[in-house]
Amino acid sequence: MSEADQDWEDQSPERLYVITGGRSGTSGKSASLDLVTLIVSKAGPRLGMQPEHAAIVRLCHSPLSVAELSAYTRLPVSVVTVLLGDLLADGRVAARAPVPPAQLPDRALIEAVIHGLQQL
After folding, report:
1. Count of other CB atoms within 10 angstroms of residue 88
2. How many helices (H) and strands (E) does the chain have?
3. pLDDT tens digits, residue range 66-95?
4. Three-state SS for 94?
5. What's the CA gap between 103 and 70, in Å, rounded?
6. C-alpha to C-alpha distances, 87 to 74, 90, 112, nearest whole angstrom
7. 3-state secondary structure at position 95
8. Short-list 27, 9, 29, 28, CA closest to 19
9. How many CA atoms lie within 13 A of 45 on its CB side?
10. Neighbours of 57 (CB within 10 A)
11. Which of 1, 51, 71, 91 is the most buried (most CB within 10 A)?
12. Model pTM?
């Protein structure tokens, strides 16, 4: 394999351009995607689907973050978000915000509960 072929197989700008169809920005639903947005497949890959799309659909049988998808597919996050935009529009995947971190109750409430327990 020549060096030019190897570059095409890796992360050459030409390959990434072809994968995204020349698109670089996000649109619609994919505009709200960030690194921790969870993606889960709603349907399996279909015949004739672009290999990168099919790989994402297969990987997402259980929820994965956009960052994880980027790592597993070895594609830049910007490319993955463009591909996810296509899959969201096609109804192949669903995006959801990650589970928010637990919020602690108000300090005054905790002190009131402790005071009430001490009165027992």
Report:
1. 19
2. 6, 3
3. 999 999 999 888 888 988 988 998 889 999
4. strand
5. 29
6. 18, 5, 50
7. strand
8. 9
9. 14
10. 21
11. 71
12. 0.67
